[in-house]
Design a protein that fits this description.
The complex is a heterodimer of chains A (about 110) and B (about 120).
Chain A (H helix, E strand, L loop, with lengths): L3 E4 L2 E4 L5 E7 L7 E6 L6 E5 L3 E2 L7 E6 L2 E6 L8 E7 L6 E2 L3 E5 L1
Parallel strand pairs in A: 2-11
Antiparallel strand pairs in A: 1-3, 3-8, 4-5, 4-9, 5-6, 7-8, 9-10, 9-11
Chain B lengths: L2 E5 L3 E2 L5 E8 L8 E8 L6 E7 L4 E3 L7 E5 L5 E6 L8 E9 L8 E2 L3 E5 L2
Parallel strand pairs in B: 2-11
Antiparallel strand pairs in B: 1-3, 3-8, 4-5, 4-9, 5-6, 7-8, 9-10, 9-11
Classes of the chains: A mainly beta (about 110), B mainly beta (about 120).
Chain lengths: ~110, ~120
């Protein structure tokens, strides 16, 4: 199986900060990567697919980049409603696998 | 508008069979390219993909759990089911169903709210 490693596991930032979350695949997954946001008690919500395509209805402050094994989710200006856990998911292999998540909190 | 909703027993005893239902609207699983997956999440932990079924009735399983899983759909193509045999405490989790398109190994754009399952004697 392809392993997904997210860093950091916990990130504290202030409103208005530019925030970067990382995801690393154990092998080349090209651009077959998605990012999800999960707020407490809710289901995951798709933010980004194909590494850098913004899902319909998602604010433009969210962006994704990367290919191969290294990927980044960036929030250009952190808002209070962005407090959540963020998961990456690879779908290159015949098995969907998720990272352990990055918990984003307000400083 | 695409919506999905999971239902299950809430609690069951170890060694029993867990039966889950995903009821959805806004699309038909008979439409080419549609896929419904099951994913679970133990409290405070990450997500684990379990199984999927596509518009053609093809079924896909997580290899580590394959021997215990059965995914199926109803003839009206508005419900998908998952059975997990011989459950134990490690199967305690919130179970989600989600829709993707094109291939079972894909991003999932629509999710249900989840149903919590506790395995306890």
């Amino acid at each position: 199986d392809i392993q997904m490693t997210q860093s950091p596991s916990l990130l504290s930032a202030s409103v208005g900060d530019r925030v970067t979350l990382n995801c690393k695949a154990s092998q080349n997954i090209y651009k077959n990567l998605a990012w999800y946001q999960q707020k407490l008690g809710e289901a995951p919500k798709l933010l980004i697919y194909n590494a850098n395509s913004l899902q319909t209805g998602i604010p433009s402050r969210f962006s994704g980049s990367g290919s191969g094994t290294d990927f980044t989710l960036t929030i250009s200006s952190l808002q209070p409603e962005d407090v959540a856990t963020y998961f990456c998911q690879q779908y290159y292999s015949g098995m969907n696998t998720f990272g352990a998540g990055t918990k984003l909190e307000l400083k | 508008q695409v919506t999905l909703k999971e239902s299950g027993p809430g609690m069951l005893q170890p060694s029993k069979t867990l039966s889950l239902t995903c009821s959805f609207s806004g699309f038909s699983l008979s439409t080419s390219g549609m896929v419904v997956s099951w994913i679970r999440q133990p409290s405070g932990k990450s997500l684990e993909w379990l199984a999927a079924i596509d518009w053609d009735g093809d079924k896909y399983y997580n290899p580590s759990l394959k021997s215990r899983l059965t995914v199926s759909k109803d003839t009206s193509n508005t419900q998908v089911f998952l059975k997990i045999t011989s459950v134990d405490i490690a199967d305690t989790a919130t179970y989600y169903c989600a829709r993707s398109q094109g291939y079972y190994s894909s991003y999932m754009g629509f999710w249900g709210p989840g149903t919590m399952v506790t395995v306890s004697s």
